[in-house]
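Same chain as my last thread, 719 residues:
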Amino acid sequence: MRVFPCPAIRRRSPLLLALLAGAAPVLSAGGAGAQEAVDAIALDAITVAGAPSFRETATGPVQGYRATRSATATKTDTPLRDVPQTVNVVPREVLVDRQETRLADALFNVSNVQPGGSIQGRSDTFLIRGFRTQTYAIDGVFMNQANNFYPVQRDLADVERIEVLKGPASVLYGRGDPGGVINIVTRQPSLVPTADASIQGGSFGFRRVQGSVSGPVPGTDGLAARLSVATQVDPTFRDLAGRDNSRFFAAPAITWNPSPDTRVSFIGEFTRQDSVYDEGLVARNGRVPLDTIARYYGEPFSRYNANANFGTLKIEHDINEHLMLRQVLNAQSGSFDVFAARANGLSANGLQVTRRTTGVNSTYASVDSQTELVAKFDWLGLRHTALVGVEYFNGYRRAYTTQGPLASVSFLDPLPGLALPGALSLQSDLKQKTELTGLYAQDQIDLGYGLQVLLGVRYDTGTQFYFSRTSASRTIPPEQELSGVSPRVGLIYRLAEPLALYASYTTSFKPQTANVLGVASPPPETGEQVEVGTRFDLSPDVSLTASVFDITRNNVAANDPVNTNYSIITGQQRSKGVEADLAGTLLPGWKVIGGVGYTDARVTRDTTIPVGNRLDGAPLFSGSVWTTYQFQEGAWRGLGIGAGVTHVGSRFGDISNSYKVGAYTRVDAAVFYDLNEHARFSLNLRNLTDARYIEQPFNATNNIPGAPFSVLATLTARM
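reply #2:
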C-alpha cells in the first residue's frame, strides 16, 4: 500500500494521531504486518467535506439501533418488512455503545440465541431456537463446512452489522442447521475518507487496540480501500496457570466501480489466535459447583494455536436496468494445533478429576463459487424479483489426534504444574472431503392489494468422503453420494403501512457424517420449520417483530442398539416456541434493542436418549434489553448513559439431562461522553451484581462460567 502523509489528520484530530501512535508498540507485538497497519492508519486518511446524505442499504451502515433492510434472507436488497421469515439485526452502533469484543456478547441482543460453548476457548458456537450451530456466514458465504467448527474466535473490528436469520435456510445457503444462520456483514470501503481507533483496558488484565481507516485510492477513479486491524491480550478471570489469551486480526478490503454498471469488491481476513485450552468447570452430583469459578483443571502446557484466513471476491454487473449478474468467489484455509490436558470425568468417590493428554494437528481449506442472476420485471400484471444461481463448494479437513495418560487432579483444589504428560499414541487420523453443487431459484412476487409471496427451491448434489483411522484397522469406506431438495414458501400481507403479517415454510439440509453399518450413503440430516409472525413499526424509528415457530429436525444420528460402534439414522428432535424483538429510537437520543423468547426443544425419537429430554444448553425462557440515552443539548450535551439486563433460564448441560445449570440474571451499565465530534470516552460495567453462573454448558467436563463484575474503559478517536 502506498502511503500519503496527510496534514489534515494532525490539523483536525490530534487525539486520533496520539491514540494510533500509542497503539503502535502494542500492535508491533503482533508482527511487522501490525506495525505497517498502524502506519497506514496514521497516514492514509484524508478529511473531505461534503459527505453524501445517508441512505440505508442491506450491506451498509445503520443509523441507530434499527435496521430496515437486509439481504441475508433473500440475497437481494429487501426491506425487512417484506421478508416472510424472522431476521434480527444487531447494528454496529450497538456494538460501539456496549463495547462488545465477543460475538457471543453481541448476540445476547437477539431473542432465542444463546452461546453454545467456546469449544475449550477455541471458537464460537451458538444455539438458535434450541439447535446448535458451529459455523456462520461472512457476507453471505459460509465458513468451511468441511470443518466442524471455525478454528478462531470471531473479531468484531470490521463488523458493520450482525444478522440472524431464524429457522432453516438451505434454499439459499445449502448445507446448514435447522436453528438458523448467523451472517456477519463487514464494513465496506468508502470514497469519503474516514478513520477510527480505540484503546481499551479492563479488569483481569484485558487490553485491546483496534482501528479502521478507509478512503479513496489516488490514481484510480472509483477505487476505495479499508484496512481494519485489532490486537488484544486477555488473561481472563480464570486461574489459567498464569497464561494469557491473545489474538491478532487484520482485514483489508477494496471496492472498485470501473463503470456505472459494474461493481467489484474484495474482503480478506487474517486471524492468529494463541490461547489457553480451557474446558471450564466439571459437573458433579447433577450440578456444576460455583464456589470457585476460577478453578482450572488444566496444566500450564495446555495451549491452543490457530490461524484462519479467507478472501472473498464479488463482481456485480448490470446487464440492463432489469438484469444483474453476480459472481462470488471465496477461498479459505487455516490450521490449529492443540497440546492439552483434558478431563475424562470423575473418580468413583467424586474427589478426583481423571484426565488425559491430547494432541491435535488439523488443517483445512475450501473454495466456494456462487454465480447468480437477479432479474426485476413485470409479468402477467405482477412485479417479480427473481434470483437464480448455482453454487459449487469443495472443502476438506484433516485432523491427526494423539492421546496419552495424565495424572488425576483434585476436584476441589486442583494444583496445575505438578503433572507431566505421558507418551502419546494414535487416537485417530480423520480425513474428510466434501464436494457439493447447488442449483437454486427464488421469486419475490408482489401480488398487489398488500400481498406478497416468496417461492424458492434448491437442489444439492455431490459427494463426501469421511474416514477416521484408529489404532485398530478399519476398512476405508466409499464416497457418500449426497443429494437433497430444500423448498421454501412464504406469504406476506401488508395489512397497513406500518404492519405486516407473514407465514412461511422453510427447510434445511446437512450431509451426514455418521458411520452406518452397511450403508455407504446415509440420508442427510434435514429440518423443516413452520413460522407465523408479524413486523409492526410502532413509530417511524421503532420496530417490533414477533413470531411463533415449530421446527422438526429429522434423520438425527442415533446409537445403533445392535452394533454399538455404529449409528442408525432414526433420531428426531423438535423445537417450538414464541419470541419478540424490539429495536429503534424511542425519543431523540433514547435508543433500545432487546428481545424475549420461549423455546421448548426436546428429543422426540431416539434409540438411547429418552424421548422428552430437553436439548442441551437450551433454556425454556430467555430475554435481554439494552437501552441508552444521550443528552442532545444543554450543559450535559454529549453525555450518555446505558443500562441492560440479560436473563437466561436454567439449562441441561447434556442431551442425557444428567446435570443442570441454574438460571441467571446479569445487569450491565455504561457511561460515555463525546468530548467532541472526534473523540469519545466510555466506561462499561458488566455484571454489576457479581452474579455467579454458567454461561456456556457443553458437556459434563466443559462448562464455561460467566465473568464476575468487571470494568472496561475505552478511548475512541474518529475522523
